[in-house]
Amino acid sequence: MSRWNSRDIAALSADVLRSDPPLPNLLDAMDVDAPSETPVNTTPDPVSSEQTGLTRAEGLWFEDCGLIIQAENTIFRISRDWLALQSPIFQDMLALPIPVDAEKMEGYPFVRLPDTAEEVSVFLKALLCYGFFEAHPASTTFHILGAVLNMSHKYEVAVLWKHALTHVSHFYPTTLSDWDQLDGKSSEWQDDLLEEPGETSPIIALARRLSIDWILPAAFYHVSRFTEERVLLASDTLDLSDKILCMSACRLLEAPSVSDVLDFLWSPQVIDGCLSPEMCTKRKFTARRAAEKKRKRDVDEAPLMSLRIWEEKDWEILQVCPVCLPTLKIAHQQARQSLWDRLPVMFNLPDWAELKKRKADALK
């Protein structure tokens, strides 16, 4: 994550200032005891939470802390110095000059963030509460993961950012071997996305917004498999270009790419050294016909598509001679690897080498 420049910080401070009535800059009156060059009686009277009708955040209101943050209609009371220690963005803001006439709430600095109350709550809990949000393989929900990704990226909290990246990077890997190790397994946060039709696409929108590019090939593949075309078109989380990418790639993954992966059952018709050419050829053709039937999209089940059109159990059914079997397995794996290598191109992304470099840079 790159540090914000002074213009970025000023822009965020401008967001904080937008309120009715006006609220102070994020760092207005951060230091309660700051020297004043104007008469004391010019300082506005403190506002109480009762007067504003705001709700104190449960579990995030600490009486011994001196900074009050508002997000929507929720207020949080935390330590100013602690927050600055966690985030270089807040730390830089704390270095800004402090107006003497800054508004306060209940006698303490009172600031407003442009983020949602839910995001701020998750963000502060992830920072404060041990075990609330940890790196993979700890369990989490998409609601929490998404908020941590957004807020840790925005405020440059490196530890939380890397923890969040371990979750998405594990389940949307950059290598075929890591993909195979998942073996169809999913996480709690991925299951959250699958509970409602069409809700697998938010991970792509999130990755696009936060430049988590290396998860996109596997994420696009996943979305193309689990999302029906009509649901994909109706999605309000993907832009039109990504919808087109998914639909175009889906045609490739369900047709030409499937044929490429299953070609090991066609060619060569007879493998050199085969102990029983007639039997092996017949069984390969029979297996190919059976595999082709898996292309059919069932409304209640996602299609297997290219990478899983031929599964481990299919080898047991094939029953070819001991000479043919290892040759077929090698050819099949080579075809799958070739498809995996082409995934980024299908979705108009940089090649795997570049994506792996971006991943390494983000997680170092």
From TrEMBL:
Residues 27-51 are annotated as: Disordered. It comes from the Eukaryota. Residues 38-51 have a biased composition (Polar residues). This is BTB domain-containing protein. It comes from Mycena venus.
